[in-house]
Each structure stands twice: as C-alpha cells, then as structure tokens.
Design a protein that fits this description.
The structure is a homotetramer.
Chain A lengths: L16 E6 L13 H18 L4 H8 L1 E12 L8 E11 L3 E10 L2 E14 L10 H8 L3
Antiparallel strand pairs in A: 1-3, 2-5, 3-4, 4-5
C-alpha cells in the first residue's frame, strides 16, 4: 500500500474547492473536541458539495448511470483539535483521476490553522454488485481539469 | 397526537427484553455525557436484538417478506445523564401490536437508575414504496404473546 | 407527561427561524432514507443556528455563564421520508419560555412537504453538576419576543 | 508521513484481541452497506474493549492520571463491504509502544473474510491542554508484552 501517502501534501493541488462547515454538539465527544471519525464525514460532505459544484449528485449518478462512489482507502493525519462552534473550511483537491479511481487531497482548516490533512481514494463501482465501472466521460473530463 | 404518551410508563409491561450496551467516546458530546440523539440509536439496537431473540432479522424480513420497519413516532424523556464507560441496559416492552403498527415502551437504565424512558411507534411497510403492510403472522403472534 | 404534545402543531408559532440542511450519505441508512435518529440531530443544529442568530453560542454560554442546554424531552412525528441529496429546511419556533425551560416547536420540510414535526423541551443547567440554572436575562427576553 | 503504512499488515502481530460487533441500521447508508466512517468507530470500540481487558478504562485514565488518548493518524483500507445484521470481529494488535505513542494494527473480519484493515496511531496527552504525557508504567508494560 505505497499507493497512498501524505508526504507531498505540502504541495497543494492547483485548484481546490472549499466547503464551510460548522461544528455542532453532535460532532464533539467527551474530550471536548471534534470526534476523530467525524472528520471523515466532513471530508465526504466536502467531496459531495464539490461534485454538486461540477454539476453532478450522488443520487443522479446512481439513477442515471447505476454508479456509486465507494471509499477504498483513507489516510488521515490529525494535527490540531477542532472545538464546538468552530467555523471550519474543508478543501477538496485532486491528486489523480483514473477511469475508476480518484485520489483526493483534502484539508480541514480553521482560518489559517491546518487541523487535519487527508488523502482519500474513491472508486466508482456499479450500484448493483460493486464491480468497478468507468466514470461518465463528462465527469472524468471535469475532474482531470482540476488535477 | 394523543396516541403517544409516557404517562403510564410506571406500569411496566409484563414481559420485557433487556439488552446490555456500553458507552463509548463516539456516543458522548462536549458536555461530557451521552448525546441525546444517541439514545435513540440505543433504543433501536435493543429492538433489533429483541427481534433477533424472537427469531427474526431486519435483513431477512426485507429479503423474504419485502418488509421494513420504520419509526413513525418517538417520545423520549431524559431523566439522568449517562457517562463514558457506563454499562447500560436498554429494555424492550410492548404496549400494543396491530397489524402494521407496534407501540414499544422502552427504558435505559444504569443498574437501578432509570436514565431514559421512551415510547416508540414502529410501522411495518413495504421496502418498495413504503406502503403499510401486515406483519408476518408468526411474528405478530410472538409479539402479541409479549403484551 | 401531558406536558409535551404535538396536537396543536398545526398552529405555527408567530415567528419561526428557518435553517437549510443538506442530506449526505452519512445521514441515510440501508432503507435508502434518512435514518430516524439523524433528524434529532438536524433539529439541534437548527436550534443552535437560531441561538447564533440571536447573538449567542453554546460555547460562550458555557464559558461566560457556566450554562449548558440539555434536552429533557423529545416528541417527534415522522410523516414522510427524506432522501439522499434532499435540500431540507428545519424550522425553530418557540412554544413557551420559562426561567430554565424552553419548549420548541420544530418542523422539517422539503419545499412545501412537511416531513417531520417535533416538540423539544430544553432546560438550562449548570455545566458543572447539571442543576437547573436561570437563562441569562438578555437571552430570555429575546426568546420571549419570539413566542 | 512514511511513519504509517499498511504494507506489512499481512504479518499479524503475535497477540491480538478480538471484539465482536453487530451491524445495525444506524451503521449503514443508502448504498446498502456499512458507511465508511462507521468502521473508524468500530476500530475505536475495539481498542476501548481491549484497554478494559487490560484493566484500564478511558474514564479512569482521565480521572486518575489526567490522561486522554487521541488519534493522531489513521490509515484504513476498505476491501469488502459489510452488510446490515452482519456479525463482525474487530481485532486489536500492537505494532509498537513508545512512551506517548502507540501504533495499532487492526482488522475487521466477517468469519474468515477480511473486510477492512487499518493502522491507527494513538497518542497519550494531558486531558488539560493536550500536551503529550507518558503512559502509566503499568499500562505501558502490559502493552509492550503484546508487541
């Protein structure tokens, strides 16, 4: 699994999408900070909004193309905690786009503070049976333009 | 909506099923206690284990009978907080069983302390389209024996 | 527990606050719809945004006043399901404001469709020990103006 | 971030702890499978039960030693989906134990099927301020015996 590493995350991708997010009680734990698994949800919310920004939704991709995205690998580094009521920004950058596999570089920031950085590998599979399936060409093209 | 009230919850149903549950970090919030929506999940876990105890599972009911249970109404009273690492017991009692509608009386306890009491109305509907559908007779019979 | 009922929910409170919310994968379950406990989180997110709209935050109330809000009672009626990618609106209305106890009337809508209605009783307690504690007068006044 | 890799995960640690887990509706998403962030919670539940098995709890460690564990890094590979009602086993193995830093190798299995493998780096920090703090010697010794 050399395929996923965070070592180059300092070189930000050229284009990134940014999604604001607010921290609610539901996101925190008894340690007084955002629960670590919650950031994994934040990362997906941001990817979903970025997809919507490109003109696509998960529900349409399933309905029209029988396609769903699954996370196949996840690498998250937690640098600083986030707190109740924090206003966060979650970024979406693309490392690479293959026919069925997209590697995202994402970050969670509070103002200029980098809290979390992540690399997430997503695969496009058939909703029915989960076999790998090629991205719709128009979506692939839009993604490649972001690399 | 007079149909759901907690006023008789002191009279426990004759038969109750009890399900142990442990409090993890994921269940707590920055207030240091179990997050209120988390108890709603605990209640369903206990109903699911009770169903399994009767010889049924949600996945089988859907596969064999095209039936899913949905929560149509929920009334929860929070009396005392639960804390990280607490060992809880969640009970399942039945108030009434109709052809498509079951009223559960449930409680969450830590030893003899009553933390939460709830009434939950569940309906059996078609997995495809969510129209009300009668319970499988064998399941209805087993449930009625518990009232 | 006659204190909480949904029977008058048709008469909307005079002033309501509205909070937009998007449905993500994390909110749904294998039934293909938003998981019932998730709406309980949506309701709190909306109350939190309404509080922020009034000029207060949960973290400030705790830091400055040693006060936290706890949910003491919850009554939710699920009328129609919400789906992946739905754009929802969650409303916050106030039924009554006491010195330590607020009764909220809330709804979840998708366009003109009413999906969920709820009454939620919230109490203000000391962060340290959870004893009831009076609302800060400026907050109580702002809330009463909404009844 | 060469420090965390899954490449040697085939060599299982000598001693592993195993924790059974059941899949409930709350764990699944509209794709019909367990939501990817949910596995991150499963992993922590298992580490918590393993800690309890060693004679320690998170709440005691905080109360007696002012110590909390935080996840500082997470690397998860998703190999096969888990489904509603699945009975899973989550393992806890230890790769290395430092004075403040523990590297866990964990897996989620359904019978002999490997569904998820993960490496999780946990640090022990002061509950108050989150500065690194040494593990209690008795806990460190018990952990080292597992490497």
């Amino acid at each position: 699994m050399a395929k996923l590493s965070l070592r180059h995350a300092e070189q930000s991708p050229l284009f990134t999408f940014e999604c604001p997010m607010r921290v609610y009680y539901e996101d925190t734990d008894a340690g007084g900070v955002v629960y670590h698994a919650q950031f994994v949800k934040y990362l997906e919310r941001a990817r979903t909004e970025w997809l919507r920004h490109l003109g696509f939704t998960n529900s349409d991709l399933e309905r029209k193309h029988g396609l769903v995205f699954i996370v196949s690998e996840l690498h998250v580094e937690y640098l600083k905690p986030a707190l109740l009521d924090d206003a966060l920004n979650v970024t979406v950058g693309i490392e690479s786009v293959g026919r069925v596999r997209i590697v995202f570089a994402q970050e969670v920031r509070r103002d200029h503070d980098l809290l979390v950085k992540a690399r997430v590998v997503v695969a496009s599979v058939a909703a029915n049976g989960f076999k790998p399936v090629a991205l719709p060409p128009e979506l692939e093209k839009k993604m490649e333009a972001m690399c």
